[in-house]
Amino acid sequence: MSEARPLRILHVVQGYAPAVGGTERVIQRLSEELVSQYGDEVTVFTSDCYSAEAFPRPAHPRLPSGHETRAGVSIRRFHVVRSFGPLLQPVQDAAFRLGVPLNQYLRTWYAGPIIPGLTGAVRRHPADLVVASSFPLRHMYQALRGARRSGRPCVLVGGMHSEDRWGYDRAMIHRAIRQADLYVAYTGFEAQHVVSKGADLERVEVIGLGVDPEPFDRVDARAAKRDLGFDDHPVIGFIGQLGVHKGVDTLLEAMPAIWARRPDARLLIAGAQTEFAAQIEERVSRYDPEARSKVVLRYDFGEDDKPRLFGAIDAFVYPSGYESFGVAFLEAWSAGKPVVGCRSGAVPDVVRDGQDGVLVPFRDAEALAAASLSLIENPEWARAMGMIGRDRVRDRHTWPAVARRFRESYVRTVAAR
C-alpha cells in the first residue's frame, strides 16, 4: 500500500479533548497531525467522560455524547454506564487482595469504561485499520473484537505501567496483544516487557511520543516567574497529572529539607483538579504558615498556559513511579529545563542520568531533595542539561516526526493484511 494514499483510520481511546490525561492528549495530537500532514480520514471513538477516574463514579460530570468535529477529526462520544462502579469497587478490591481466580475481569469491569454497543460500532465503521489506546481499560478489548470481526487489522498502543500490579498484572492484556496485528510501545523497556510476556517480537514497534516545542520558545522566563509571583526565587515545579502514583507526596515530603538549605526556593504544583488534589492540599496545609506561602497550586489550566508554567520553573521534578514514557519530560526539555525523574519503569529509557536530567529512587524523599538542590544550586550545569534535552526533542520528538513514524507503522500493518 502506498504511503501517499490517504488512510481511513479509526482511533479508539478512553477520552478526547476537552477530556484530560496523557493518552487523551497523545491521540488528539496524533489524529490532528495525520489529518493535516497526510489528508487521512481520522475518526475517534471515545467516551463522554472528562477523565478515566470518572468511569466507575456516577457523580462525576459528563461531556455531551454524540458527534462533533475538531481540527478535521471526526469524534463520536459514547455514553458510559457508571452505575456498577460503586458495587464493583469493594468486590474487585477484595478479590485482588486475596488473589481470587479471575479477579482480572472484575478489575477490568470496575475500571471501565462500560460502553454498550462499542464493539458493534467498531465492526461497522469503514476504516482501513483500527487503533486502540490504552491498557488496562476495557475499550481496548472491544476495539480488538470489533476489528477482528470485520476482518480489519488492529494496532494496540498499550501505554503500559508494568510496575502497577493492580492495573497491568492481567494475563488478558497480553493475550489481547498476541491477537493484535501490531503493538506500539513508547520505549524499549515497554517492548521488552510485552515480549517477555509472549508478544511476537516481529509485531512490536517502539515509536515514542511527541511535543510541540515552538510555544515554549516564545516564553520569557523572567516574565513568567513574575506573573506567577515568584520574582527571582528558584522554583521547583511539578506540572502534570495529579495522581497517587506520580510521586507528588514524595516531593512535598522532600521540600522541608530543600527549604532548610534554600529557604528562598518556591514550589509550583500544577495539573487538572483530580480527586488526589484534595490530598495534596491537605498535605500542604500541614506546613507552617511560612512554608505554605512558598507553595503555588494551579489547577485546570489550558494547553496554551502550559509553556508559561514550564518557563517559570528552574527544575522540573517528576518523581512518578509508573510511566509508559512521561511526555511531561519532553515539555520540560522544550522549555530548556533540566528534569528529575525516578529510576523506575520506563523512565530510565527516557531520561539519561547526568546528561539531560537526574534519576533518583522512587519514593526516596532524601534523594529527591538532594537532586533538586543540585539543580537549583548549579544553574549553569542545570541549564546545560536542559539544552541537551531541548536538542533531543527537536531532533526526534516533535509531533510531525512522531506522527510520521506512527503512520509508517499503520501503512505497513495495512499492507501486511
What does it look like?
The structure is a single chain. The protein is α/β, with parallel strands linked by helices and 417 residues long. It folds into 2 domains: 8-210 and 398-416, Rossmann fold; 214-396, 3-Layer(aba) Sandwich (Rossmann fold), CATH 3.40.50. The protein has 19 helices and 14 strands. The protein has helices at residues 22-38, 85-98, 103-111, 118-124, 139-150, 165-168, 171-179, 188-196, 214-217, 221-227, 248-261, 277-285, 289-292, 306-312, 327-334, 347-350, 365-377, 379-396, 399-416; strands at residues 8-13, 41-47, 66-70, 73-78, 129-133, 154-157, 182-185, 204-206, 235-239, 266-271, 295-299, 315-317, 339-342, 357-360. The protein has an 8-stranded mixed β-sheet, sandwiched between helices. Helix 11 (248-261) links the parallel strand 9 and strand 10. Helix 2 runs antiparallel to helix 3. The longest helix is centred in the last third of the chain and has 18 residues, at 379-396. The radius of gyration is 21 Å and the shape is globular. The termini are close together. The model has no long low-confidence stretch (mean pLDDT 95).
